[in-house]
Amino acid sequence: MLAYRQGDAGAFETLYARHKGPLYRFVLRSVRERGLAEELYQEICMRVIEARGRYTVQARFTTWLYTIAHHRLTDHWCRRGLQLVDLADHDPPAPAAYEPARRAEARESLARLALARLREAMADG
What we know:
By secondary structure, the chain is mainly α. It folds into two domains: 2-83, RNA polymerase sigma factor, region 2, helix turn helix motif (Rna Polymerase Sigma Factor, Chain: A, Orthogonal Bundle); 95-124. 71% of the residues lie in helices and 0% in strands. It has helices spanning 2-5, 9-31, 34-51, 61-79, 100-124. The longest helix has 25 residues, at 100-124.
């Protein structure tokens, strides 16, 4: 990226080729629609091109690239009405299904139900 920032167009081609597949799949996993993923992917590439003069080495290039992608995807979902929630302010309750006593009780109940249905099927057959 530093070479591209200095004006080496070939460096951008190298970066593009190296990150094209993984970045596109990242976008596609978020939007789950190929046409939209391609459009957003191109917008992300344009943002990289526009921001090349402001690029500084503070972390790995991929960190910078995926931060740009994340911000673009956040913009996309906000425009579609998705409300983001700050999870730092919320402690989710522990699901009851993970409590060992409840799991054992559920297994026993399921086993009793299966045996009852087996008995019914054997009595009818």
